Amino acid sequence: MSQVFHRNPKHRYPVAAGGDGPYVIDSGGKRYLDACGGAAVSCLGHSDREVIAAIKTQLDQLPFAHTSFFSNQPMEDLADALVESAPEGIRQVYFCSGGSEAVEAALKLARQYYVEIGQAQRTHVIARRQSYHGNTLGALAAGGNLWRRKQFEPLLFEVSHVSPCYAYRGKQAGESDVAYGERLVRELEEEVQRLGADRVLAFVAETVGGATLGCVTPVPGYFKGVRAICDKYGVLLILDEVMCGMGRCGTLYACEQEDVMPDLVCIGKGLGAGYQPIGALLASGKVYDAIVAGSGFFQHGHTYTGHASACAGALAVQRAVKSRGLLAKVRERGAGLEMRLRARFGKHPHIGDIRGRGLFWALELVEDRQSKQPFDPKRRINARLKLQALENGLMCYPMGGSLDGVAGDHVLLAPPYIISEPQLDEIVDKLARSIDEVIAAR
């Protein structure tokens, strides 16, 4: 009997005992190809010696010094590296222990920014339905995942939610991508006006949708329109790139492909590749300067902010991504993965949509391809697919509630940047087998 309070106490988990590149090895010696990076985390696989050596070296020098007393060199160097490659206007980095903390910090910094500049009446946050921004209370409030929110609703602060940019389900018959994006931007503007043009402090969005919707990419021009509305009404644009950022979509920041400049960016997962827990909030000079010119103090903080060995590990990860040309590899392997997915599933009767960028792809599973009818949630397609794939030696990331928080199934793929062409074949073969086995079983 385990004394661990596991995520699912009724489930018996295999024990992970080792790693070999993109494979996780359990205590019985079984190998699992990690096609989802755990949760889009393990971008360098599970045995990168350079990253491990960098962490060991830092542990020998200094494991931890509280950042209310000291800075540390890995934190300074990592901030420099992130800002050097960040979208225009981003100037400072606030470190934390993961993505949820990064979103919490963004929400609090956005509020404090307006207090500092004399607009304390701004209290409203707008986000999108079917979004996911983390599981702490502030991040959960911003998120639009109904299943995750439901039992905690009484504890969450009020957030307005507008439609996601989800072309497969959201576009109207005969509507172009451009017209669809413009309609969503108008919806955002109408919500700002409904709440009060001078009372909204931030719009929060995943640049590419993650766990809840599964790799939903924005239509062209959507985020430029969003940026224009934010500028028009003085609203901060917070982009959540915890899952889709740090190279996952083929550029270091996913918003580079949208040609849009956010005010705040949340990152995590691929920042440290799982070698140490770490996340970060990147802030524009405009926001940072308002704090410095005002109170001079961001009223926020955690014990492990800027943890020295975590920053050392993340710095080694980011240097590896750059020095090994892995962004180009993500684009190359991503094209190969897309080709294989479309070849295998493009006419599959139960695959409604294939979508993604870089090494960030998802399949939406449906009962009927023509009508887009989702499977009955009682069949638990996503939960059963996760277990069946694991039985077949594949780690993938199925989720439910894609359509409305209850119905809808998709499976997300986010393999490491070091994945090989033969391993792409292994992913698709094992995934196809697992999907067919689950759908065939009643």
Give the secondary structure arrangement, pairings included.
Elements: E1 16-20, E2 23-26, E3 31-34, H1 37-40, H2 49-61, H3 73-84, E4 90-96, H4 99-116, E5 124-128, H5 137-142, H6 146-149, E6 160-162, H7 167-170, H8 177-195, E7 200-206, H9 222-233, E8 236-240, E9 264-267, E10 279-284, H10 285-293, H11 308-323, H12 326-345, E11 351-357, E12 360-365, H13 381-391, E13 394-395, E14 397-400, E15 409-413, H14 421-440
Task: Characterise the protein shown here.
The chain has helices at 37-40, 49-61, 73-84, 99-116, 137-142, 146-149, 167-170, 177-195, 222-233, 285-293, 308-323, 326-345, 381-391, 421-440, and strands at residues 16-20, 23-26, 31-34, 90-96, 124-128, 160-162, 200-206, 236-240, 264-267, 279-284, 351-357, 360-365, 394-395, 397-400, 409-413. It has 442 residues and is of the alpha/beta class. The strands form 3 sheets. Strands 4-10-9-8-7-5-6 form a 7-stranded mixed beta sheet, with helices on both faces. The longest helix is centred in the C-terminal third of the chain and has 20 residues, at 326-345. It is globular. The mean pLDDT is 97.
